């Protein structure tokens, strides 16, 4: 349907300017009744969008600052791959203290979503000990030695409790914060996994120590290598995963 679906949010909705939104989406700021919002057009399935919308609504109701979806005039949360969300004011974290606030926000996300169901089509890091594919990950496309290394890193997380994870919180562009609150935006990589994957942050802001820090760092590097394979960033991240 494309951008004409904006009409479902009102006849006077207008696009303002494009925003950074990753390679898989077209993201614009929009005006709805004079209020600034964000519209994202992509090709995710209805089941995938419904999972994301339910998660964001739940987090919004429970006090986290997230880009909750704005319903259409007939109360739909997405139409033809188009989602309209609240605009999040603020800037990226800049100091160690800022990143500690991010870590605290992530831990609240993890607490609130313990036992959350998996995003349709996704696999967790520990699921990939036995599965080869999950959404953007295809282990069959990686060299067998790389798969062995990644699985060895994820094996160290096996048996841990799972929850919803943001998936890419160490990117400053995915945080909007001010003196009063921390907002997590861009939930494209959110899924259910071991919370440690969210806690590998600049300045070791989550305060991980010893084995816990090493396990999280190795598992995170393996995850990003698998998700991005085979661009230069993926190769760089794989180099951080120790050989078995």
TrEMBL record:
Entries under Gene3D superfamilies matching the protein: 3.90.1200.10, Phosphorylase Kinase, domain 1
- Quote the Pfam families the UniProt record gives: APH
Question: What are the entry keywords?
Answer: Transferase
SUPFAM superfamilies recorded:
Protein kinase-like (PK-like) (SSF56112)
Q: Which residues does the UniProt record annotate as the domain Aminoglycoside phosphotransferase?
A: 16-203
What's one GO MF term for it? transferase activity
Protein's name in the database = Aminoglycoside phosphotransferase
Organism of this sequence: Devosia riboflavina
């Amino acid at each position: 349907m494309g951008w004409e679906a904006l009409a479902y949010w009102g006849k006077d909705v207008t696009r303002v300017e494009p925003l950074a939104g990753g390679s898989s989406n077209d993201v614009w700021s929009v005006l709805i009744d004079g209020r600034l919002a964000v519209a994202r057009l992509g090709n995710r399935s209805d089941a995938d969008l419904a999972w994301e919308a339910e998660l964001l609504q739940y987090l919004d109701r429970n006090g986290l600052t997230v880009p909750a979806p704005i319903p259409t005039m007939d109360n739909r949360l997405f139409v033809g791959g188009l989602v309209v969300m609240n605009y999040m004011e603020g800037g990226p974290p800049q100091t160690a203290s800022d990143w500690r606030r991010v870590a605290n926000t992530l831990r609240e996300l993890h607490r609130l979503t313990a036992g959350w169901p998996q995003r349709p089509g996704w696999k967790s890091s520990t699921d990939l000990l036995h599965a080869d594919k999950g959404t953007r990950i295809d282990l069959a496309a990686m060299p067998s030695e790389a798969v062995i290394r990644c699985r060895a890193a994820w094996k160290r997380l096996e048996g841990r409790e799972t929850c919803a994870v943001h998936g890419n919180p160490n990117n400053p562009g995915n945080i909007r914060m001010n003196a009063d609150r921390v907002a997590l935006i861009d939930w494209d990589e959110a899924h259910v996994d071991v919370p440690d994957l969210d806690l590998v942050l600049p300045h070791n802001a989550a305060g991980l120590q010893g084995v816990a820090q090493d396990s999280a760092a190795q598992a995170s590097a393996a995850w990003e290598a698998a998700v991005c394979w085979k661009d230069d960033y993926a190769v760089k991240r794989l180099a951080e995963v120790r050989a078995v």
